[in-house]
Amino acid sequence: MKTIFISVLSVLCSLLLLNCNAANSNASQNTHQNSQVQREWMLIAFGSYSKADLIAKDAKINLTEKPENGKIRGTAFMGCNSMFFTSEFKNDGGVEISEIGSTLKACQDMKLEMDFSKAFRNMTKYSVKGHFLTLSDGDGNQMEFIAADWD
């Protein structure tokens, strides 16, 4: 009886240790994923807008907030209002953008802001290659960013 109890206890402890190791592995993958995107990004390619137009508007997103439960609170600026959102970058290359809002200033030219807001909420995939972040949807639309701290 004592031998069976020790055997069962050993198996349970082993399973517990394996489970903890898997949880730590997933947490470290998410941390690595977040560290790739957790920067300020300047928008350099979007729709029919030229790079010069985007630079003139100081178009950017900021993903530098500390992640909470795998999600990063971010901000965006397209020349007029400050926007805010929640993002979740997944290990499979998927991204979820939610809880989008903004300040309500009326500016003379808000076309970029309106186009960006409409397209941004539909982005479902991401990739980071070097200093570039690309967001895309399922219809072939993309947004390309460059890291603001890259020289």
UniProtKB/TrEMBL annotation:
Gene3D superfamilies, alphabetized: 2.40.128.270
Domain of life according to the entry: Bacteria
Domain DUF306 span(s) in chain numbering: 39-143
Pfam families referenced in this protein's UniProt entry, alphabetically: META (PF03724)
Signal peptide (residue range): 1-22
Keyword list, A-Z: Signal
UniProt entry tagged with the keyword Amino-acid biosynthesis: no
InterPro entries: DUF306_Meta_HslJ, HslJ-like_sf, Hsp_HslJ-like
Name of the protein this chain belongs to: META domain-containing protein
